[in-house]
């Protein structure tokens, strides 16, 4: 295969050293080696329904297909299937974030009629079912419905009742509006709008029970629903689990700004200022998507795709890394806002005993995992009250992203979280601890052991 490499001064196969002798130019040889990897126009996401038509194409134009040498070498370590699944998952979550932004704006600016209540009294909105239906449809079209197994939070029963006809209509409208936007995210949409039965079918396909064998997706369509309906933080979480191990994680955080300095501003103020500032300024990027693949040692963050813009992979993605802080007195810790399923008093006492002096960062949803992965905080602790069972979709994506960003996540006994037992994290030792590093993590675990007997948990 003939390869044409531009010959520039100092970049040819030979160079002169300080003694004016001709010696091999290693930079040129490296470039020549890397250029031997063909940059193919990869078409992925085909289904039988769209025979010979890809659900999305990666980097159609030549300028979009240029990748760094590190990316080329990294790609050799993973199968094309891994690459395809990761990119598709990120694109699907990007589209889900856009859907949620529209619904949240509607709820906040108009009424709360779109809010319903589940059996556990937590609010669920049009966004929950719409995201679940949309992501289910995208995955099924890309890989074939027989090859896609999904564990998700929402079931179709309450939406199928006659009394929910108006809600179902709103969900169908929202789903079709989202799928009509597929080309903006590099995805292939349906040939015609989906009907009620097709939307219900997409939601009902998310009926997997998980387990220790096989591959399945874990989806939380809107994690932190209370934050969502209040215009605050929430997340869309999608993870791929294989034989009980999380192998891929994507976390969409529509209200979590790309830049750390914006965390100091109240979210409502940020919403107002964002509307008054040109969206081309990165400082005002409202939200982000984080993602990682098991074993890569890397976690990435990219901004949400602005309205009326197309997603160009990898969408200005940049690597994120956990904070280097290992001194508890300088660390910031996160904890859930909701007191119903977490003990604030115990975590407050624990924080004091280990030397944490900063105010806790209390945010809804898996945004806490994002905060640690990108270095905005150092510790996340959650100790549930008696009787509460943690679900896998509330943690899978965030756990992997923190781990690949250099952090540590275990239960309070120091054991990895077990995603092989079905829909719940069975066998959890007391609580969940996520830290920016092993040194900090060990200090927290020792403090838990020292304080646990005096707790009421």
UniProtKB/TrEMBL annotation:
GO terms for biological process: phosphatidylinositol phosphate biosynthetic process; sulfate assimilation. Its EC number is 3.1.3.7. It is an enzyme of class 3 (hydrolase). Gene3D superfamilies: 3.40.190.80, Fructose-1,6-Bisphosphatase, subunit A, domain 1. Its cofactor is Mg(2+). The keyword Cytoplasm does not apply. It catalyses: 3'-phosphoadenylyl sulfate + H2O = adenosine 5'-phosphosulfate + phosphate; adenosine 3',5'-bisphosphate + H2O = AMP + phosphate. Mg(2+) 1 binds at residues 153, 223, 394. Belongs to the inositol monophosphatase superfamily. This is 3'(2'),5'-bisphosphate nucleotidase. It comes from Cannabis sativa.
């Amino acid at each position: 295969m003939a390869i044409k490499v531009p010959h520039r001064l100092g970049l040819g196969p030979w160079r002169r050293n300080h003694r004016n002798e001709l010696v091999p130019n290693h930079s040129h040889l490296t470039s020549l080696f890397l250029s031997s990897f063909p940059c193919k126009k990869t078409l992925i996401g085909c289904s039988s329904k769209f025979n010979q038509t890809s659900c999305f194409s990666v980097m159609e134009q030549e300028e979009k297909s240029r990748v760094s040498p590190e990316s080329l070498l990294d790609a050799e370590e993973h199968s094309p299937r891994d690459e395809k699944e990761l990119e598709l998952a990120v694109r699907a979550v990007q589209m889900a974030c856009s859907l949620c932004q529209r619904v949240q704006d509607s709820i906040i600016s108009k009424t709360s009629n779109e809010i319903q209540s589940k059996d556990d009294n937590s609010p669920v909105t049009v966004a929950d079912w719409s995201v679940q239906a949309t992501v289910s449809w995208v995955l099924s079209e890309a890989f074939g419905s027989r090859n896609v197994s999904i564990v998700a939070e929402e079931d179709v029963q309450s939406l199928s009742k006659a009394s929910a006809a108006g809600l179902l209509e709103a969900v169908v409208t929202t789903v079709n509006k989202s799928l009509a936007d597929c080309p903006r995210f590099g995805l292939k949409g349906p040939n015609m709008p989906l009907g009620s039965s097709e939307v219900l079918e997409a939601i009902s396909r998310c009926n997997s029970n998980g387990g220790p064998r096989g591959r399945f997706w874990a989806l939380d369509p809107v994690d932190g629903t209370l934050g969502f309906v209040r215009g605050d933080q929430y997340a869309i979480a999608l993870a791929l689990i294989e034989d009980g191990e999380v192998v891929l994680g994507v976390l969409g955080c529509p209200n979590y700004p790309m830049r750390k300095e914006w965390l100091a501003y109240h979210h409502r103020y940020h919403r107002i200022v964002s509307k008054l500032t040109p969206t081309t300024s990165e400082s005002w990027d409202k939200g982000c998507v984080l993602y990682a693949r098991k074993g890569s040692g890397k976690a990435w963050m990219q901004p949400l795709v602005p309205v009326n813009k197309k997603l160009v992979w990898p969408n200005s993605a940049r690597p994120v890394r956990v904070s280097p802080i290992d001194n508890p007195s300088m660390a910031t810790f996160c904890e859930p806002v909701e007191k119903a399923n977490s003990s604030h008093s115990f975590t407050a006492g624990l924080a004091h005993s280990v030397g944490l002096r900063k105010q806790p960062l209390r945010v809804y949803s898996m945004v806490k995992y994002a905060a640690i992965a990108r270095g905005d905080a150092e510790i996340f602790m959650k100790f549930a009250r008696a009787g509460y069972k943690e679900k896998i979709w509330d943690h899978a994506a965030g756990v992997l992203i923190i781990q690949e960003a250099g952090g540590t996540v275990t239960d309070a006994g120091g054991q990895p979280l077990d995603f092989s037992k079905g829909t719940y994290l069975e066998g959890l030792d007391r609580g969940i601890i996520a830290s920016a590093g092993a040194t900090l993590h060990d200090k927290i675990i020792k403090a838990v052991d020292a304080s646990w007997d005096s707790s009421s948990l």
